[in-house]
Amino acid sequence: MPAKAVRKAALLAALTFFLAPAFPQKKALQIQTKKIPQINSTKTGDKDFMLKQFDDELLQNRQLYSKGEPVAPAFYAYTAGEDDKLLDLAARFCLRYDSFCPLNGIYGADADIKGRRLALPTLDGLFVPLEANENSDALEILLQKNRADLLEDKSLLRYNVDGKIYVFFPGQKFSTTERAFFLDTTLRLPVKNYRISSRYGQRDNPFGGGKVQFHRGVDMAVPEGSSVFACKGGTVLGTGQNRIYGKWIQIDHGRGMTSFYAHLSLVQDGIKKGTLVRAGDLIAKSGSTGQVTGPHLHFEIRVNGNAVDPEAYGNF
């Protein structure tokens, strides 16, 4: 980076840091990620001025915060490369992953960050969205709900980052449940002691007629009333009942993935649209409602609305 550009970026970072406390607490500080100083390299051998400046400010702010002094973090940007891994970057920047992942709309440890421009704050803490809705990621909703009574606290800094307002909780980290949501990268089996009675793909119509049909999920034969568990943490998109699937539940797991459970005998109390569930939570009992030849769970995984083979995501 040319020396003039380096000096300009350094001045911008300094102004962001020193002027931020002068803003009224009730007004969100404006941050545009395309305008914040850019870290170009994280390699040990490269002498990246911005990386050193980020490290120095992070250390300084931690020292100030530990003394009980108010700190308004500045921000730096880094564009993730082909080989960058989320948790490795957190280690390199000496910054907790929960301090920058929600800020960048990253709600899972398995997120694809290649090519993404990440905003990195110069202080540890949680950036919690001021508002969340049923279309938000499950972890985003959980962060907001867990701190709903504190989001209007005028002593906390607010940041408008590219048009989205976050409340900054300095020093805070994910709760145990929030961490479980973030690190939940595997798919768990929705029932126990089952037998696969029909796999994903083309099959003969089980109701006769000699026709071949495409089966969008996996049928897992279990006794009537067997426990059905959420295969992954997420937000319930809805429950219902129809002639084909009988009683059903659909869960949104974020990043385009949903799961679908059908032919249920009952849906557990409290499981409804908007309910947050963790992997392994009891959500229903299996049954034989709808169009079936016997009691079983029909289980689907959908990615961006399209059914995919569940066996590609778990050991069935």
Number of strands: 19
Q: Report strand %.
A: 25-35%
Mean pLDDT: 87
Indicate the low-confidence ranges by residue numbers.
6-24
| Residue share in helix | 10-25%
Distance between the termini: 52 Å
Radius of gyration: 24 Å
What structural category arises from helix and sheet content? alpha+beta
Can you characterise this structure?
With 316 residues, the protein is an alpha+beta fold. About 6% of the residues have low confidence. The chain is elongated and about 70 Å long. The protein has 6 helices and 19 strands. The termini are far apart.
Question: Could you name the key traits of this structure?
Answer:
single chain; 316 residues; alpha+beta; 10-stranded antiparallel sheet; 4-stranded mixed sheet; 6 helices; 30% strand; elongated
Q: Any chance you could write out the topology, listing elements then pairs?
A:
Blueprint: H1 3-19, E1 29-31, E2 38-39, H2 49-66, E3 75-79, H3 86-92, H4 97-100, E4 117-121, E5 125-129, H5 138-146, E6 158-161, E7 164-170, H6 176-183, E8 195-198, E9 201-204, E10 212-215, E11 218-221, E12 227-229, E13 234-242, E14 246-254, E15 257-267, E16 276-277, E17 282-286, E18 297-303, E19 306-308
Parallel strand pairs: 1-6, 2-3
Antiparallel strand pairs: 3-4, 5-7, 6-7, 8-11, 9-10, 11-18, 12-17, 13-14, 13-16, 14-15, 15-17, 15-18, 18-19
Summary?
This protein has six helices and 19 strands. It has 316 residues and is α+β, with helices and mostly antiparallel strands.
